[in-house]
Amino acid sequence: MKAAFVAFVAGVVFAIGLGLAGMTQPSKVLAFLDFTGAWDPSLAFVMIGAIGVHTFFARRALVANAPVFASKFTLPEKRDVDAALVGGSVLFGVGWGLGGYCPGPALTSLAAFAPTTLVFAASMAAGVFAFEAFTRARSRS
Asked: Which of 72, 120, 61 is nearest to 96 (CA)?
């Protein structure tokens, strides 16, 4: 129960941060991606801040014996770069560039019930389900 509460609070803080930083506004994100036009570099500061916070906690985790709410750390075991990783990265980038959303801000923006946000989130969910179905079908054969 404690871990769920901490996760909820972290999610709320993350959502508030996304809103304050303007990452829930596709126009601001698209302006950040427009290097040849009216480029808005302000989201770079958001990313630098996020990388700094992550680095601080990742370094602390490396020297800790165990996480606070679990018996052990679980880290990704797969480290190779394959077609699925590259393809997924390309799809993520294309979706971010076309829609102006990445998954976190898109989910945060659902509270506004904007039609474009609803379409983006529904498309994202459909992509997740299609990937899961494809992965299950591929593992059976």
From this structure: 120
d(CA 45, CA 71): 35
24: tokens are: 């829930």
84-91's contacts with Cβ under 8 Å and 24+ in sequence apart are 91/127
- Give, for all 141 residues of the chain, the pLDDT tens digit: 787 898 899 888 988 888 888 888 888 888 888 888 888 888 888 889 989 999 998 898 888 888 888 788 887 888 899 998 898 889 888 888 888 888 888 888 888 888 888 998 898 899 889 989 988 998 887
Tokens representing residue 19 in the block: 């809103």
The residue behind tokens 């390309």 is: 90
Whole-model pTM: value is 0.65
Alpha carbon of residue 91 to chain centroid: 13
Would you call 34 helix, strand, or coil by DSSP? coil
Cα(97)–Cα(56) distance, integer angstroms:
29
- If you search the block for the tokens 């679990």, which residue do you land on? 70
List the one residue out of 40, 52, 46, 65 whose CA is nearest residue 105.
46
